[in-house]
């Protein structure tokens, strides 16, 4: 797509390509959080239900930040569920999880993988001289790591 963005075209292309899997994983994480939200059972149901819903809302914000950055770089955003399923590297969320602990464990694994991947692309954006993408990924990573801490705190 045409843009007057001052970053060189090759840098924009490389960053957009690196951001697509991050977008896919944010979409995957958002869906995993909602899956846990809908199915969790146990004595701490209400608290966990709210935790999972908050994660879902945060992931929606991350999706928007990353998708809009791809567009700002002059590239098409590939945000369909089908494309997300192709590109995500997060551990698959097993269907049938209902226990609080199992849902928390699964989301902790997903958040950990997500932050590892956002850190990789954050480093790449710094190396390519794009502080704007680095700033966006810092915000996403900061939020995801904070939420990982919340989820792990529920695990005890």
Automatic annotation (TrEMBL):
Keywords for the protein's UniProt record, in alphabetical order: DNA-binding
Family indicated by similarity: Belongs to the Dps family.
Pfam families for this protein: Ferritin (PF00210)
Stated name of the protein: Starvation-inducible DNA-binding protein
Matching InterPro entries: DPS_DNA-bd, Ferritin-like, Ferritin-like_SF, Ferritin_DPS_dom
Any GO molecular function: DNA binding
PANTHER family xref list: DNA PROTECTION DURING STARVATION PROTEIN, GENERAL STRESS PROTEIN 20U
Residues annotated as domain Ferritin/DPS: 17-156
């Amino acid at each position: 797509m045409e843009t007057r963005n001052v970053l060189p075209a090759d840098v924009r292309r490389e960053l957009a390509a690196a951001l697509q899997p991050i977008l896919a994983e944010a979409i995957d994480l958002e869906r995993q959080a909602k899956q846990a939200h809908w199915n969790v059972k146990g004595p701490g149901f209400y608290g966990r239900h709210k935790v999972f819903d908050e994660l879902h809302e945060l992931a929606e914000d991350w999706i928007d930040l990353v998708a809009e950055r791809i567009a700002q770089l002059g590239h098409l955003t590939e945000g369909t569920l089908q494309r997300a399923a192709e590109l995500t590297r997060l551990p698959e969320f097993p269907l049938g999880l209902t226990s609080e602990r199992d849902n928390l464990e699964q989301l902790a694994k997903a958040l950990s993988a997500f932050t590892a991947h956002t850190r990789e692309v954050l480093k790449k954006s710094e190396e390519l001289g794009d502080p704007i993408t680095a700033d966006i990924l810092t915000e996403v990573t900061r939020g995801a790591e904070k939420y990982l801490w919340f989820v792990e705190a529920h695990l005890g």
